[in-house]
Amino acid sequence: MKITAKQGRGTKIHIHIDGEYLLTVDEDFWFSSGYVSGDEIDDGDLAAFKEAAGSRLAFNSAMFSLDMRDHSEREIRQKLSRKYDEQAVDTAVEKLLDLGLVNDRRYAELLTRELFERKKYGKNRVRSELYRKGIASDTVNEVLEEYENENKPDNVQTIVDIIRKKYYNKLIDEKSRQKVVAALVRLGYSFSDIRQAMREFTSDDFYEEY
Question: Are residues 8 and 39 in the same domain?
Answer without folding.
Answer: yes
